[in-house]
Amino acid sequence: MRIQFDQQMERLHVELIRMGSLCEEGIALSAKALQEKNPAFLQRIAAVEVEIDDKEREIEDLCMRLILQQQPVARDLRFISAAMKMISDMERIGDQAADIADLAPYIVENNSQSKVHIGDMALATVKMVTDSVEAFVKTDAGLAEQVIAADDEVDGLFNQIKEELMQLIYSREIDAKASMDLLMAAKYFERIGDHAVNIAEWVEFSISGQHRKL
Amino acid sequence: MRIQFDQQMERLHVELIRMGSLCEEGIALSAKALQEKNPAFLQRIAAVEVEIDDKEREIEDLCMRLILQQQPVARDLRFISAAMKMISDMERIGDQAADIADLAPYIVENNSQSKVHIGDMALATVKMVTDSVEAFVKTDAGLAEQVIAADDEVDGLFNQIKEELMQLIYSREIDAKASMDLLMAAKYFERIGDHAVNIAEWVEFSISGQHRKL
């Protein structure tokens, strides 16, 4: 029984790492799609989103089986509950990466992405997602802490981009649709940053048993 | 044991209904805040958001205890799993209602809400949330179906508002910041509609055991 439990916990760990890597790939692709018009990026993001959704259900089933069959307690139960929360944040990161990719072609056609700091925001958010997954893989509370701190920078970039877009609208230097699409893309990146923070907070919780928001 | 189980399941049902009512109140208030500048609305929304977050944790604990202590199977386990999913959608509805309320004062100051169909979108979304909760309370698969169908209307209104905002920007008939804030508010309503659809799909799942997306 205990051996089977350890095997299932190991598998849960491996599947979470895989799902995290898919999120990293999705958001990295969405950042690329905002720099260069390339249908291959969009096709790959669509595939990644499907893989992420499948992975979420797979991990959910695994967690439910673990809880029902193995009656975990204390730290193990904490880890499984954290896993069930993390996967819904990861699933939304996949959705939002796909949403950004949908907006990208029109933005790039107008070369509007070059007029605001959306590239910086993309880079900062990709790093938050990568670090949050890394913090989980290495159970690194310090790195989780850094992800949570990095969110202020991303929120600041969102406000900056909003200001830049307003100025471009006033001065008629941007296509109106592109300005709306860029605002939405920036908002999606900001939300992805929030989900990376949630993941980092669940990493902290599974390590310490303390959740800063609870 | 069975009596205790029935009591806990009954309590889960009651708490979910309470959380649903809080969501209805939150979004109804956010719709009002977009029509009239009134600090009382904003204070109440902030309080509702806190109540919703507390309720989510309370219900989550109850579900975990039910699963661990009572080893539910089949329909009961299905209902508990659906409950755990529904509450995260409800929690996000609360967040987004608060996000809309944050944007409302500047929009109303400029009376920009009257220039686009945001009021219609608010009404349609409030109805989706109310109906999704109602469908759960009455285990009404037909009503759940209607909620899912209503999402097309809300998505259509979002695109309409985006078009209206673009025209207002071209013709300089709207404040640039208000136009951005209105686009964000419309997006939050659209997301709330998506969460109402998720709730309706979990209602269907807990009734039929079939999830249309799985």
Automatic annotation (TrEMBL), chains A, B:
Functional description taken from the UniProt entry: Plays a role in the regulation of phosphate uptake.
What GO cellular component term, any one, is given?
A: cytoplasm
Any Pfam family the entry gives:
PhoU
Protein species of origin: Hydrogeniiclostridium mannosilyticum
Q: Where in the cell is it found?
A: Cytoplasm
The GO annotation for biological process reads: intracellular phosphate ion homeostasis; negative regulation of phosphate metabolic process; phosphate ion transport
| Keyword Cytoplasm attributed | yes
Keywords from the named record: Cytoplasm, Phosphate transport, Transport
Q: What is this protein called?
A: Phosphate-specific transport system accessory protein PhoU
Task: Give the record's family classification.
Answer: Belongs to the PhoU family.
- Every copy of the PhoU domain together lies at 16-103, 120-203
Lineage runs: Bacteria, Bacillati, Bacillota, Clostridia, Eubacteriales
- Self-association state and partner proteins as the record states: Homodimer.
Return the NCBIfam families for the record. Answer: phoU_full
